[in-house]
């Protein structure tokens, strides 16, 4: 495997801490959400995961659409990452709701499923967390 890019971030303090990237572009506090007993008021790991997965997934989706001659420039994905208790500890789950204007529902689902097979974030989570990909 050839590395094309490596992101580097230093995290301190856990869920109530600070994140800073080596290039300084990311430099902010993280807080546990109120729903998890925290004070809220800052981003959290689940939001960051959703924010990273969404654009990566859309990149895969647009690549597949381009190869098939489908216009998907206006495609959107609503990524929801949930922090769950599963009886053995904690686990994440994800829901990706995919919309491609002007395309039939069945065709959106087909392209969405193909994108889920090729997106690096989708591949990284395969078999590790519950994921639902749905055309909307």
Description:
The protein is an alpha+beta fold. The chain folds into 2 domains: 1-43, N-terminal domain of TfIIb (Single Sheet), CATH 2.20.25; 45-135, K homology (KH) domain (GMP Synthetase, Chain A, domain 3). It has 3 helices and 6 strands. The protein has helices spanning 45-67, 105-118, 120-125; strands spanning 9-12, 17-21, 27-30, 76-85, 90-99, 130-135. The protein has a 3-stranded antiparallel beta sheet, with no helix packed on it. Helix 1 packs across helix 2. It starts with 8 loop residues before the first strand and ends with a strand. The mean pLDDT is 97.
User: Secondary-structure element order, as H and E?
Assistant: EEEHEEHHE
Separate helix tally = 3
The counted number of beta strands is 6
Strand order of the largest sheet: 1-2-3
Structure summarized in a few sentences:
The protein is an alpha+beta fold.
Question: Any descriptors?
Answer:
single chain, about 140 residues, alpha+beta, N-terminal domain of TfIIb, GMP Synthetase, Chain A, domain 3, 2 domains, three-stranded antiparallel sheet, three-stranded mixed sheet, 3 helices, about 30% helix, globular
Task: Give a topology summary.
Elements: E1 9-12, E2 17-21, E3 27-30, H1 45-67, E4 76-85, E5 90-99, H2 105-118, H3 120-125, E6 130-135
Parallel strand pairs: 5-6
Antiparallel strand pairs: 1-2, 2-3, 4-5
Family: Belongs to the OsmC/Ohr family.
Protein name: Organic hydroperoxide resistance protein
Organism: Pedobacter cryotolerans
């Amino acid at each position: 495997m050839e590395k094309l890019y490596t992101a580097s971030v230093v995290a301190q303090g856990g869920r109530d801490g600070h994140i800073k990237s080596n290039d300084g572009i990311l430099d902010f506090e993280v807080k546990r959400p109120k729903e998890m007993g925290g004070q809220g008021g800052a981003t959290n790991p689940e939001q960051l995961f959703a924010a990273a997965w969404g654009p990566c997934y859309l990149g895969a989706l647009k690549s597949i659409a381009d190869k098939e001659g489908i216009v998907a420039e206006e495609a959107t994905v609503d990524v929801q990452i949930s922090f769950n208790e599963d009886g053995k500890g904690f686990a994440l789950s994800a829901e990706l709701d995919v919309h491609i204007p002007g395309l039939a529902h069945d065709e959106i689902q087909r392209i969405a499923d193909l994108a889920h097979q090729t997106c690096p974030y989708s591949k990284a989570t395969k078999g590790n967390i519950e994921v639902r990909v749905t055309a909307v």
